[in-house]
Design brief:
Elements lengths: L4 E5 L9 H9 L2 E7 L11 H15 L4 E5 L2 H12 L3 E5 L6 H14 L3 E5 L21 H10 L38 H6 L4 H22 L12 H5 L5 H14 L5 H23 L21 H9 L5 H13 L4 H14 L4 H11 L5 H12 L14 H8 L4 H6 L19 H7 L14 H16 L3
Parallel strand pairs: 1-2, 1-4, 2-3, 4-5
Helix pairs in contact: 3-4, 5-10, 7-10, 9-10, 10-15, 12-13, 13-15, 14-15
The protein binds flavin-adenine dinucleotide.
Catalytic activity: cyclobutadipyrimidine (in DNA) = 2 pyrimidine residues (in DNA)
GO molecular function: deoxyribodipyrimidine photo-lyase activity; DNA binding; FAD binding
Cofactor: FAD; (6R)-5,10-methylene-5,6,7,8-tetrahydrofolate
Amino acid sequence: MASPSLYWLRNDLRLTDNAALTAAAAQGPVIFLYVLDDETPGDRRLGGASRWWLHKSLEALSAKVPLVLRRGAADKVIAAMLKESGATSVHFTRDYAPWSGDLERRVKVVAETAGASCHRYGGFLLHEPEAIRNGSGEPYKVYTPFSKACFAAGEPKPLKPVPKFRAYDGQLKSDTLADWTLLPTKPDWAKGMAAHWTPGEAGAAQRLRDFIADGLEFYADERDRPDRDVTSRLSPYLRFGEISPAQCWHAVRAAQVAAGGKLDRAAEKFLKEVLWREFSYHLLHHWPTLPEKPFRPEFAAFPWSENAKALSAWQKGRTGYPIVDAGMRELWVTGIMHNRVRMIAASFLIKDLLIPWQEGERWFWDTLVDADIGNNAASWQWVAGCGADAAPYFRIFNPVLQGEKFDPAGAYVKKWLPELAHLPDEFVHRPWEAPALVLKAAGVELGKNYPHPVVDHGKARDRALEAFKVIKGSA
Ligand SMILES: Cc1cc2nc3c(=O)[nH]c(=O)nc-3n(C[C@H](O)[C@H](O)[C@H](O)COP(=O)(O)OP(=O)(O)OC[C@H]3O[C@@H](n4cnc5c(N)ncnc54)[C@H](O)[C@@H]3O)c2cc1C
C-alpha cells in the first residue's frame, strides 16, 4: 500500500483549484493537517474576528474531509506528524507573510530529515512575486505598470478540479476545534458576523455566483457607494483561501464573454481590484517590514500624537462624524467595512486625529474578518501617504463631503447609526449644523445619544498639514 502523504493546510481551505492537495492526492492516502500556529507569527497571531472565521471555516471543511488538528509551531508539529504517520511526502501552498519564508525552509529541513520529500505550490496569488519584475529586473513600486505587467503575463492557468483522493485512515491524534476556543464566549461579540457570513468553500462559491448575478454589472459605477451592495465581499474568502483568485478571475471573465461586451468595463475594474491584492502581496514579499514600518522611511520622523481617548472614540464609532462612525460600527458588527469607508475612517484616524497608522492597522487586524497581512498593511500605508504609490499625505479626506458624495441620502449612515435615522438627509452627515428643533424632532441629542465631533475638521486639517511640514523637506 502507498505510504501516506501529508497535506499541510494553510490559507488554502478549499478542495477546488488546489495544487498542493492535487499533488498530495496523487502520491498516496492524504493526511489533512491543519496547525494552529500562534508561535511562529509572534505578536501577529490571528486577531479575534479571524479566529472566529477560522473556526467556522474548519468546521465547514471537516464536513468534507477528516481534519487532523494540532497546535504549536508548524515545523515541530509536522516533524512529529511525519514520525507518527510514516508519511513520505509533505505538500503545502506557499504563504507570503514575513515569517513564512523561514518557516517553509524549516519545514523542508524537518521533512528531509525524516526522509520525506517536501513540495511547495502557488495558488494564493495569481503570480509569484519573483515572476513580475520591471524592465530592470526590480520589483514594481507603482501599481499601474505592475497591473499592466500582470495583464501582459496572460490569463491564469485553467482551474484544477477537486482531485480524487483517499483520506488516510490510520489513527492519528487530533485536537477538537472546541479545544482551540477560537469563538468568543463572554461576551459573544460575533453574533452579527454569524448572521452575515457563511465561511467555507461553499459559502465562497455562492458569494461569487451572487456577485456575478447581482453586483458585477453595477461594479464599475457604484463600487465606491457604501449604500449600494455591489462589491463582491469575497475578501475574507480570498484571505483564507476558500476560493482562489484564479477562480474569481475565470468566473468574471466567463461572465464578461457571455455578456457579449456589456460587462467589459465592470470586469476590467474588478480584475484590477484583484490585482491590488496582488500588488500588496508582492510589496510585502519584497519589503517584509511593511506591516510595521513606513515604506517611505522619512515618515518614521512624523510627529504623531498620543491620544488614547480619541483612539477609543474612533474604535467605538463615536467620533461625531457619521460616515466614520457608521463604518466603525459596521466593522464591529459584521467584521467588514466597505472599501470607501475604510479609506475615510483611516484618513480620519491618521490625519484628523494624528494617530499613527499602525494603531489603526492593529485594530483592523483584530476586528476584520478579512484581516490580511498584505492588504491591510499596504492599504493603511496608502492612506497615510507613506506607502508605495500612496495617496499624497496632503490629500486629506473631508468626512462630511465624502459622506455626502458616496452616501448621498445617508442610507448607509442611517443603517449603522439608528440614532440618526430620523434626521433629514441634508443634515445626516453634519448633525451639528442641524437647528435645535430639527434635532429634537429627529430624537437626536448631541452629546447624549450621539457625540459632538471630537475635532473640528477644518482645524484638524490645518494641524495635519502643519505636522507634515516636519518631514516635508525629506518626503
Ligand atoms: C485602511 C484599509 C485597510 C484594508 N484592509 C484590508 C484587509 O485587511 N484585507 C483585505 O482583503 N482588504 C483590505 N483593504 C482593501 C479593501 O478595502 C478590501 O479588500 C475590500 O473592501 C473588500 O471588499 P470586497 O471583497 O467586496 O471587494 P471587491 O471590490 O469586490 O474586490 C474584489 C477583491 O479584490 C481585492 N481588493 C479590492 N480592493 C482592494 C484594495 N484596495 N487593496 C487590495 N485588495 C483589494 C480584495 O481581495 C477583494 O475581495 C483595506 C483597505 C483600506 C483602505
